[in-house]
Amino acid sequence: MDRSKKYWNPYFGGMMLGLLLLLSMYITGRGLGASGAVKSTVVTAVDVVAPKHAENSTFYSRFLSDGKNPLNEWLVFEAIGLIAGAFLSGALAGRLKLKVEHSPKITTKTRLIMASLGGIAFGFGSQVARGCTSGAALSGMATLALAGFIAMMAIFGTAFASAYFFRKFWI
Amino acid sequence: MNKTYIILASVLVMLGVGLVFLEANPNIKEVSPEKLLSELNENTRYTSTDELAKRIIEGDPSVQLIDVRHKAEAEKFMLQGAINIPLADLLKEESLAIFDQDGKDFIFYSNNDILANQAWTVTRRLGLMHLHVLKGGLNCWAETILLPKIPAPTESQDAFDLYQARLGASQFFTGASLEVKSSQPLEKVNLTRKAKTKKVEGGC
Amino acid sequence: MGPLIPLNIIDPSWNYVIALVIGLFFGFILESSGFSSSRKMAGVFYGYDFIVLKVFFTAAITSAVGLFYFKYLGWIDMSLIYINPTFVTSTIVGGVIMGLGFVMGGYCPGTSYCSAAIGKLDAMIFSVGMLVGVFIFGEFYPLLEEMYMAIPLGDAMVYDALGISAGWFLVILIVVAVGAFYVASLVQEKVKEVDY
């Protein structure tokens, strides 16, 4: 694969990620995460647009009760760094390009619809599971927490089981 | 199969096996005399009787009380949930194994806090962590929790609040129904990580 | 002795700066490993690209082995490390939904940020979709609360649940992972080339 020559060896990448995770735990006592930033954004948005509703809701009020801006969160800063780091890597490798990546067998429109459905599912699911692949599965597994392994098996088990039905979108 | 990958995989497996050995013989580093002295002077190891009462009533699962008096005394009376490790037996392997549990706070107590402090010093020197001493020991426990003294009318509201809390605790531990001024429940305690320095409440 | 911030060895006010820097490395590593391409990631389900398996497993094992070496050498106080609390029902339900989301969208939250950062429009749509998904959860929360809080097991550790020690669990995990990597390399050779 021509393109993969520019990407890191995945085992090397995995090791780097593992060391980063270890460093994060050693310095801050916590692992990585990603869905938390989405949650903080939504909580802030709801609070700005409809503060009364946010106050009355059992879900949103939990994150607003201490008077702190919900965007003032570790994961939000980490997410900002994530975007910047990825941008840097993409720029250095010449991968920066506005485009919709999709299988030649489907249209751009189809791909965008599937991406949005996937996003909605992931947004909802990550809240139910209290984390996503980075926060619950990866960081959970790194500490050998039972939750991490259950999350990983649920996510990837389901994905593998349903992959056949979605194959037309990918290959 | 790529040679490099085979080597890497073998290294990884060996690391895992190494972990199994390390797990069986953990290397606990001893605490230096200077560090020990500074900790002794800081008094951060003390838990007040009021604090302990609160935690027991709340059912805080992280509390592990260790009674360091002689077996005969411990047999007569021990605090709820305490285990008896006489000071003389503290350095035995079976005793030290108790400290292997994660997420526990080990609180030494004795009649005063002399024996408890000795126990703390000895175990702390070995590098063990999360060790505490009940300030004033069982004598203070009896004075503050079991038979709390009514504050003089001239004392502050805080003193009265403390008295109410102690009355509640006293009922819990002795089962006796003492006259209670008002049915004020004990404040809810949020189980959070303890701050490094705590002021010791009440006094003995 | 770690963790440094919870023990006040580093001033906690540095926490957000550190979060930013950690995020920076996280994003860089992810993008450089190919996690900015949904087609590369979906490859693990169809046998043409296994970066998800390789990176995920390697990262989990590297950090877990490292963490437990630190623990047994006394370099870190594990009781101050955040352990994800286990709520059996919600983790499974959420995981299933996320699994579907992964196959449909080809992204997960972190990788969608990565891909959006390099200009992938489908990743940006995915991120917007996530905002909607979280919002839906927030609105329906009262109905979901019971399921959300069901079967709490607290700080349950996977090796306790299996009745073995952490060390042995890691040895088994490493062996399983190495086996999976070997199988993956075989599958990748056999599978029809996909142009992506």
What can you see in these coordinates?
The complex is a heterotrimer of chains A (about 170), B (about 200) and C (about 200). Chain A has about 170 residues and is mainly alpha-helical. Chain A contains eight helices and no strands. Chain A is globular. With about 200 residues, chain B is an alpha/beta fold. Chain B has a domain at about 35-140: Rhodanese-like domain (Oxidized Rhodanese, domain 1), CATH 3.40.250.10. Chain B is about 45% helix and about 10% strand. Chain B has eight helices and five strands; from the N terminus they run ααβαβαβαβαβαα. Chain B has helices spanning about 5-25, 35-40, 50-55, 70-75, 95, 115-125, 135-145, 155-175; strands at about 45, 65, 85, 105-110, 130-135. A five-stranded parallel sheet of chain B has the order 1-5-4-2-3. In chain B, helix 6 links the parallel strand 4 and strand 5. The longest helix of chain B has 22 residues, at about 5-25. Mean pLDDT of chain B is about 80; it is low at about 180-185 and about 190-200. By secondary structure, chain C is mainly α. In chain C, about 70% of the residues lie in helices and about 5% in strands. A two-stranded antiparallel ribbon of chain C has the order 1-2. In chain C, helix 3 runs antiparallel to helix 8 (about 165-190) and helix 5 (about 110-115) runs antiparallel to helix 6 (about 120-150). The interface between B and C is medium-sized, with 26 and 27 residues.
